[in-house]
Specification:
alpha+beta; CBS-domain; 2 domains; 4-stranded mixed sheet; 37% helix; globular
Amino acid sequence: MSREPIVVAPGTTLGETAQLMRDLDVGMIPVCDGNTLLGMITDRDIAIRGVASQLDPASGVEEVMTKNVLYCFEDDPIEKAAKLMEDAQVRRLVVLTRDKSLIGILSLGDLATRTEERATVAEAVKAISEPAFH
C-alpha cells in the first residue's frame, strides 16, 4: 500500500483539489479531519457533481465528496482486501488502523506488484474489470 497519502480538509476548494490531483497525477484524494477519514474526492466527483452542477470552483470538497468509503484494516489478510475490491469493482481501497485512522491506500497495482498471491491478483483484476451491466 501507499503509506501516508496526501489528504485534503473538507473546506479545501474544488479548484485547489483539482490542481493538486493534476500535480500529483492522481484521481482520488482522501478527505480528512486530522487522521479521521470523512470521505474521498475523485476527479469524477469534481467533474460530475461539481462542474456539471455548475458549482463554483471555490466551493469546498465536502459538497461533492463521496462519503461512504470502502476500506479495509491494516491487519486484514490480502485476500480479504482483494475480495472487497472485487465485490465493489474498485481499483483502490482505503487502509485504516483498528481505531479508524487513515494510514494508506491499497491499489490494484500494489496487489499486482507487491504480493506473491498471483491467483488472488488475477481474480481481482478480472472481477474489477468486468462490466457491471451485462
